[in-house]
């Protein structure tokens, strides 16, 4: 089938992280729809999917979490409500494209993964340490913590970048991020306190990630190292290729994650903007312009 081939092609490319994240979320969503339908037809019950969900969502009970550590990441790809996944994926697409354009695929994935981990950690800590939030066992699922991390990271990276929003017109993304954070804070005393706290954990990670990156420290290196290890196992690459890749990354790390391009290059880029507009710039030119703005 052409759809299967399209999915296979999307995952075979190494520079396609944003589409891969979007696809994983959609595929898991569809898989759970099929699972719920099959279980309903076989048993007549509407909760036949719950045993699988409990093995993929983050449990609020620490003892259970210790036996299911993978849930700290797998929960961030699970949705059941159509509008939940729609809004998460739209925000992931818009803000993820911005982060990917300036920081690359690897740091986009790092933000998604670390946002999920921080969101889950704050969720479990709060539900066990804050008296007002203590209750019976609960679970956490959804990409909101990861997406919020990417939204806040984009706003921290380029606070004055504008999106055109229907009925509102151009809006700076720092205000969009501020609204997302305020709504999450306001929702803590609502019916989904744990989910709102996970959003805030992701938001904190997104802010700290960019500030540390601008200071020369890439918090995503452990995630990237694990990704390289898994990727090399899957593709069965020769060891020499892996060594060469690490040497290249090491040389890039010595130059720093946000090296500043020469002023002559920036002048040429600014001239191009004055002639043809910002959208005429290539991805590399936009990255150089952003790096120069960090001076």
From TrEMBL:
Q: Which InterPro entries match?
A: DUF6576, Peptidase_S54_rhomboid_dom, Rhomboid-like_sf
> Where do Polar residues bias regions lie?
238-251
Is Hydrolase one of the keywords?
yes
Query: Transmembrane segments in this chain: where?
Result: 21-42, 72-96, 108-126, 138-158
What range(s) does the Peptidase S54 rhomboid domain occupy?
Answer: 68-209
Q: Which domain of life is it from?
A: Bacteria
Please name the taxonomic classification of the source.
Answer: Bacteria, Pseudomonadati, Bacteroidota, Cytophagia, Cytophagales
Give the protein's recorded name. Answer: Rhomboid family intramembrane serine protease
The residues covered by the DUF6576 domain are 262-295
Name any one Pfam family assigned in the record: Rhomboid
Compartments (UniProt record):
Membrane
Query: Topology versus the membrane, per the UniProt entry?
Result: Multi-pass membrane protein
Q: What's any GO biological process attached to this entry?
A: proteolysis
Q: What is its main location?
A: membrane
Keywords, sorted A to Z: Hydrolase, Membrane, Protease, Transmembrane, Transmembrane helix
Residue ranges, annotated region (Disordered): 238-263
